[in-house]
């Protein structure tokens, strides 16, 4: 299945609805969308990922979520994981990363769009 991303953003808050599979074939689309959002919305302080229509998440999808967390935390944005279906809840529980993904970011300064970021996507 494909991944459909639907973004609703204001200056300080954004909701990204994730519909479909978050896997090897689609995770890069998620990370690229978040990277673009961070570049285009410098006043953003909260990013809500809405998983109500997520149908599947594999290890690459989970890795993509960790990359999103790294990028949002670096610029002081709080990440929220909303409407987590049972299959996502299980993988987050087994891996023990839910608290890490949703913890408050420690960095409060924003990086410029031209500054490098480790990782791919």
Automatic annotation (TrEMBL):
InterPro entries: Anti-sigma_ant (IPR003658), STAS_dom (IPR002645), STAS_dom_sf (IPR036513). Transmembrane segments: none annotated. Gene3D superfamilies: STAS domain. One of its GO terms (molecular function) is anti-sigma factor antagonist activity. It comes from the Bacteria. Residues 16-101 form the STAS domain. Coiled coil: none annotated. NCBIfam families: ant_ant_sig. Belongs to the anti-sigma-factor antagonist family. This is Anti-sigma factor antagonist.
